[in-house]
Amino acid sequence: MSNACLRGTHFKLVVLRRISGLAGEGRERVCMRGRGIVENDTIAAISTPLGEGGIGIVRISGPDALKIASRLFRDPSGKRRRTLKPWGVRYGIVVDPETGEEIDEALASAMPAPHSFTREDVVEFSCHGGIGPLSRVLDAVLKCGARLAQPGEFTRRAFLSGRIDLAQAEAVIEIVRARTDSARRLALANLRGGLSAAVVSIRDDVVALLAQLEAVVDFPEDDVDEPDHDAITRRARETASKLRGLAARARCGRVYRDGVTVAIVGRPNVGKSSLLNALLGRSKAIVTDVPGTTRDAVEDWTNMHGVPVRLVDTAGLRETDDPVERLGVERTRERLDEADLAIVVIDGSEALSDGDVAVLRSAGTKRGVVALNKSDLPQRVAESDVAPHAAGMPVLRVSAKEGTGIESLEKIIAELAVGRVAGVSEGMVMASARQQEALERAAAALDEVARGVEGETPLDLAAIDIREALFWLDQITGRSASDDVLDRIFSEFCVGK
Ligand SMILES: Nc1nc2c(ncn2[C@@H]2O[C@H](COP(=O)(O)OP(=O)(O)OP(=O)(O)O)[C@@H](O)[C@H]2O)c(=O)[nH]1
Ligand SMILES: [Mg+2]
Question: Which of 219, 222, 240, 159 is nearest to 444 (CA)?
Answer without folding.
Answer: 240
